[in-house]
Each structure stands twice: as C-alpha cells, then as structure tokens.
C-alpha cells in the first residue's frame, strides 16, 4: 500500500507557502488484489451503487472483477466500449448522464488512459465518487485531478475528480502488453523536460513552483529509470514499482494543483500530433509512446539552446497568420483564445537576458545527454523516432514548431521567438 498520508504529512508547512492536500483515500498495489476488490472498496467507504466503465480489452484483462464486486454487495452497472482510445467531452457528458439517470453514486474505471480520463471528468460532472481498477502501468495520470479531453478534436486539460481509491493487481499489470508498459515509461521520461519547463517558467514569469513537489516527481522518475531494462518483463515486482512511480507523479500534480510536475513541451507536442491526426480521422499511437519521442526531441533542442552562452532577447514578432493557417479553421478559435494575451507578456526581454545563465544551468543540471537518454529509452522498449509512432516527417516538424501556441503556458520552446536564434528544426527530429 502506498502511504498517501505520509506523503501529505511530509509537506505540511512547506516553504512554498501553499497548503498541499489530496482527495485519495487509498492506493493498493499488490498480488491478487482483484479477488479483494470489493473488500478494499468497502474498507474505504466507497459507495455501493456503481457504474463500471471498461473496454473489451481492459475487461478481459480484469476478468472476474465485476463478479467480485457484485458478490461483495456492489450493485454494478456496466458501460463497455469496444476500444476507447480518445477521451472526448461528449463521452464524459454521456457517462455523467447515465450516473444521474440511474442515480448511481460512484464510477469505477476498469483500465487506464482515456477510460480513466473520461471517467474522472464524468465523475466531477455527475458529482459521484470515482475509483480505478488499473490494468496496465501505461501512463502517469492515475492519481491526477485533471483530465485532458478533446472537444471538436482540440485537446484541453480540465479540472476533474481525483480517484478516492486506486487498485492495481500486480499479476494483471505484469501481463499487460509490452507496448503499454513501455508507453508508461515514455510518459514518465517526459518529466525530465517537463520539470525544466516548470523551473524556467517560475524563473522568468514568477509562476508558482514548489521544490518539494518537484522532488516527488524526480524521485519517482529515478525509480523508473533504474527499472528501464525490466519494463517489458512479465515481472510483478517491476510492474508494481513502476505503477507506484506513475501514481506518485499524479499525486504531485494534485498537490501542486497543476499539471506542471508532470507535463511540459513534450506533452503539448504529443497533443498537437494527436489533434491533427484526429482531424483526419486517424487514431494516434499510445500517449506515452508519443510523449517519449517528443521528450527526446525537446531534450535535443534544450541542450542546443543551453550551448549558447549569451542571448539578446527582443519582444517577439510572430507571424500569427502563419500560425492560424497551420492550425487551420477547426482549431484557430482555440488558439486565438489561448493567446489573448500571449504568455510571453508575463516576462520581458530584460528578464530573459538576466536569467539566461540560470536557464542554461537548469537544462544542464536536469537533462542527461542525448546518447544517455536514447540508451535508457531503448532499454525500456520505448519508441524513439517519429516513424515508430506513425507520425509523418511533415506532422512531426509541424508539431515541434507550432505546438507552443495550443497552450497558455510558458515553456523553454515558447521562448525561442524572443531569443532570435535561428533554428534548424529538422536536425532535432531526424
């Protein structure tokens, strides 16, 4: 069992000056927990009238869990998808509507990824409790209090319901497809560049930053990196340790009331690739696989920027017509909204110039070399190139150049137009 209270108690009186709290009552990770699911939920006082949401793959992985719940006194309705790969606002509303119509008091998401995100926002909308029965250590959002949801194919992160209970049976996690386990690793490795972005933004815009929360993410990341060669093994020990690290990063997001402890440029690039493929009726590769590839690209760019000793920043002069044209009519309204005003108004060229030595130091102190990072990812079976994730060279390049404008968020790449540095973008992607 992950000791949530110990984590929260350790942050009381945090020097950042903010109170830190979570809504999670319990995280149970261990062998054979499927058979104890009803007892675990009852022990945490989870409501008895449930909507179970799964797809055919996740329900097969958790075969028998519904029977366990029903035998344990839970009245459980089932809503099953064929294969849910996109968390869409329409589905969040539909699931919330089922809960209201049938007067259900809780949602249990049986699975991971988009299933969890759909359910956590639906639970907030329906004002029900929410819990997760995980079937693969494939992403870092299990414990998150936010959900990235698509509306009209544009992806936006929304406040959502943090699960009150997370159950992970290591015998199930260990048997998850290797591609899902390596996707979880890719999602975790993204914390490297995500933490750089958070620290840089705090430095030049004054955005809230908590060193203790960042340290939680860093420790979880160290654990996962140490397990890289074992990620794709059918090892309960490795799967359980990785699952715990993934959950901790979600807890860090909730403690900071921000996605910053787990997400930066690399996640936004992944989202750009996703929305553009969705626009063309195509489903993207798994989130964590895309994030891992984007992390490698970001790390190369960050190292290049850090190699430049002095910069002469100027107010940015962007070709907004080019940006709007690239996003296209389906997304231009969202981009305009998120850039009015633009996030660069929260800093100045003088501040960036003054802080440049510290920005360089943040990059160099946080990121491994390109060779080291590539080696780590390959040992974990993670995707490392855009061709691995079925992203074309054109879309790959587009995402790297234009992604910063789909969020109102300061990142190191969002600074580039102020720096006046000529970028050979292609060399970072190849």
Chart the SSEs and their pairings.
Blueprint: H1 4-10, E1 26-30, H2 37-43, E2 49-55, H3 56-61, H4 65-71, E3 75-81, H5 89-101, E4 106-110, H6 114-126, E5 129-134, E6 146-151, E7 154-159, E8 165-169, H7 170-174, H8 178-189, H9 191-205, H10 211-226, H11 236-256, H12 265-279, H13 287-306, H14 320-327, H15 332-338, H16 349-366, H17 370-379, H18 393-402, H19 416-419, H20 425-429
Parallel strand pairs: 1-8, 2-3, 2-4, 4-5, 5-8
Antiparallel strand pairs: 6-7
Helix pairs in contact: 5-6, 8-11, 8-13, 9-16, 10-11, 12-13, 12-18, 13-16, 13-17
Describe the 3D structure:
- It is a single chain.
- The protein is α/β, with parallel strands linked by helices and about 425 residues long.
- It folds into 2 domains: about 5-175 and about 210-220, Rossmann fold; about 260-430, no CATH class.
- Helices cover about 50% and strands about 10% of the residues.
- The protein contains 20 helices and 8 strands.
- It has helices at about 5-10, 35-45, 55-60, 65-70, 90-100, 115-125, 170-175, 180-190, 190-205, 210-225, 235-255, 265-280, 285-305, 320-325, 330-340, 350-365, 370-380, 395-400, 415-420, 425-430; strands at about 25-30, 50-55, 75-80, 105-110, 130-135, 145-150, 155-160, 165-170.
- It has a 6-stranded parallel β-sheet with strand order 1-8-5-4-2-3, sandwiched between helices. Strands 6-7 form a two-stranded antiparallel sheet.
- Strand 6 (about 145-150) and strand 7 form a beta hairpin.
- Helix 8 (about 180-190) packs parallel to helix 11 and helix 12 (about 265-280) crosses helix 18.
- It is globular, with a radius of gyration of 21 Å.
- The model has no long low-confidence stretch (mean pLDDT about 95).
